[in-house]
Amino acid sequence: MPAEPTLADSALSQLRVLVVDNDEAHAQAMVESLERSGYRCHVATSGPDGAKQLEQEIYDLVITDLVMNEVDGMAILERAKDALPDAEVIMVTGHATVPKAVEAMQLGAYNFLEKPITPKRLRAVVQRAADAVLLRQSNLELHQRLDERFGFEGIIYASDKMKKVIERVKRIAPTDSTVFIHGENGTGKELIARAIHQNSPRKAKRLKELNVAAVSEQLAESELFGHIKGAFTDARTDREGAFEYANGGTLFLDEVGDMPLSTQAKLLRVLEQHEITRVGDNAPLKVNVRVLSATNHDLESLIELNRFRRDLYFRLKVVTIELPPLRDRREDITPLVDHFRRDFAKKHNNQVRRVSPDVMRRFYTYDWPGNVRELRNVIENMVIMDDDQELGVDDLPPDFTDFSEEDLAAAGPPSHMIGRTMADIERWAIEETLQMTNGNRDEAARLLQIGARTIYRKLKDYQAGEEDEGD
Predict the structure, then answer these.
(1) Distance in angstroms (rounded) separating the CA atoms of residues 428 and 307
(2) pLDDT mean over 324-348
(3) What's the fold here for domain 326-411?
(4) CA–CA separation, 268 vs 248, rounded Å?
(5) Crossing angle of helices 452-470 and 98-106, rounded to 10°
(6) Is the pLDDT reported for residue 466 higher than 70?
(7) Mean pLDDT of 80-99
(8) Distance in angstroms (rounded) separating the CA atoms of residues 157 and 48
(9) For the chain, what are the domain ranges?
(10) Residue 290 CB coordination number (10 Å)
(11) If you ran DSSP here, which 8-state letter would residue 159 be given?
């Protein structure tokens, strides 16, 4: 009687394996051995065929012979790391090419198998690589579940600055304090407001979002406090305002700096007395609403211009969250680009698989005046226009391309590097790229089109050299 499938067997069956070997019999032998363990295998019997499959399909594990005609194993490794950065690559090599296989590991390969390969050795090495892939996937899924549980699923970040923002949000959210969120347009202030509400004791109640700048001055009070029938022209029925609608929950006032002064005075009274009066009515109504507010304006400057009340400012600003602009947290660009690429590829039914290094270089040198919102719009535009499954320079909006080319030219190698050794130029390129990616070594490796392990090794060599000089 066959054994019941285990959870591990089920997980392995979800992994897609590509075997690339121009010895068809050898490739089939490996496939048969792995399929008996539950892996889903695909075969490419030449380097070009393997490269083509890497462009067209998604794999979790790639096993490739090192010595092949036309496209060898090193080229397969490079293409796999570019197209499928989360996949693990195992090299198959003869005794004479073991040093080359070790070099491949330094460039990002997981391990190598020396011929002749026994089924036991094959399954052991592939199992370890599969465990590494499954662990990453498990950690990603756990992170996503935690994000969903705590209301941060729409906030994509990797930078220390945003980590500190999220940590602050987690501390603030369970309280009932009013919160003031300050940041440039497009930094995601509304996402932070939603995360605060989702993590608060009020999460079962309503969150009402009101963009004050989008409301005319004449209707601002009605939008906030409601009105009764006949209060003004066209007031044909009673209408509840934002405070009534959000009673027991949270009210998010976006662009609060654009609120008329007359309305500011009434808002201050509501915050202090916890009651509202509908326009045209005399009877006050008790409300229990937590108020979050946001603006891209400098409210202190507006106070000096007598355009914003100082007392309201301090009443709204019990706790403050400062959102950094995207240009100050460039290491968030990579996860944001990947998130938007996947999201819009699905939305527009366009199988965009990657973003070219040239595009990423431009993204890292651009200052993003529109912040995350601008990046999101650029990616959606590129996905719509793309016809080759890669977001390249040809997919960039014209104005963005023009700006980026100039910026890239201005950011070219400095004149003092001319005449220096290749080792010096290489170090300069690595260190400058790391600075551009705010220390993200994996992304720097991707931009430089070298293995991440190469960067780790180079940095270690640089550090050792400096220590030797110190001695």
Answers:
(1) 50
(2) 89
(3) Helicase, Ruva Protein; domain 3 (1.10.8)
(4) 18
(5) 80
(6) no
(7) 81
(8) 37
(9) 7-142, 160-324, 326-411, 413-471
(10) 22
(11) S
